[in-house]
User: Fold this.
Amino acid sequence: MLSQPLYHTYKRYRTLQTDRITVLPIVILMPHSACNCRCVMCDIWKDNQNLKQLSEDDIRDLLNTFRKFETRQVLMSGGEALLHPNFFRFCEILKNESIKVSLLSTGLTLKKYAAQLVENVYEIIVSLDGDAATHDTIRNIPGAYEKLKEGVKTIKSLSPGFRVTGRTVIHRLNFQKWPDIIDAAKEIGLDQISFLPADVSSHAFNREVLWSDARQHEILLEKDDVPELRNIIHHLTVSYKKDFETKFIAESEEKILRIYKYYGACYGLNEFPYKKCNAPWVSAVVEADGTVRPCFFHPAFGNIHDQPLDTILNSDKAIEFRKNLDIDTNDICKKCVCYLNLPPQVNPITEN
Assistant:
């Protein structure tokens, strides 16, 4: 008889082979649709007046699927999940099922909720856009950097080993500040920092209408900036070599170079960088209104207010989508900036 871990791995292989979900290691929940920042590269905050949020009943209903599909990690995204009045109640419900909660946050209210976060959340990933001035400008929130810094400091004072990492979107307004971002991550006290390019071409991040060319170029690097970006990356690989070696910078030098290739591809200078992704087979996104997607960027399968999550994920529509999805040729996938590849033998909590 197969041991439980081996059987779990076997089912993960079966999912990849049959396109029918039998194990779902990761689920991304957006419990609250509003955000407390006004970021220049995101439109989520522009719909704050039309608040949507998941209820406690929604979370309890999802538990049936989480048990069935052996979900091990829930990533709370948004919007800003901490704006939900029942956020920590959701965490309690998930913890009782031995599901670990990761939180994506703007960092503005970490200090206020520090004690509850240390108690209820496994890890926190904060957004960091630059040094203090650059961060505040991009977030459109005066004092945002200091609030983030104070929040991380408070959490670390309560639990020095608690893991707080950062994620930075590199774009036109901060690419020249890239070394300063790494220095800022150290100043704030983050355990790690990761980087990705800006998505400007999808319907994600509350873009009901795709951005116009002019709007895209508010965030895209200019074509003449692309060689400078390459020089900056070269500087990083030399001056911050130890941070690559210690994994303080999460990506390898090769993966960091993909950001340069991404922006080069936007101007036809090269192909979009190759990526390996199995997100639709190992994860799902549940938005604040109950909409279910295979990832942040692809169209929805259904809504948990109409059908249970497990039914939606193994509907004919969903199975057909996975069966026909070619990551290498699909236009959405080729331009994707936030992808996931979780091999069957990898535990998302400890190894991803």
